[in-house]
Amino acid sequence: MAAKKKKKAGKAKKKKKTGDLIISKSRTKGAVDCKVSSDFYGALDEVVRDMLVKAEDRCGANNRATLRPQDL
After folding, report:
1. Are 41 and 23 in contact (CB under 8 A)?
2. What is the pLDDT of residue 9?
3. Is 35 exposed, middle or buried (0-12, 13-18, 19+ CB in 10 A)?
């Protein structure tokens, strides 16, 4: 009888697809008092992703594994 391999407990981390937005369209609309164009979301997402990369770099430069507000 062959031994069965056990699956790891918990959920596997899924890597987001490049096309997925980090931000929520509905929350963005709710945060402003004006209309939001459809291409604004992609631009906002790009800015947020750039901020995250820079924050990760700063975190690593300070020999930490946890992002903190000061990394922004």
Report:
1. yes
2. 52
3. exposed
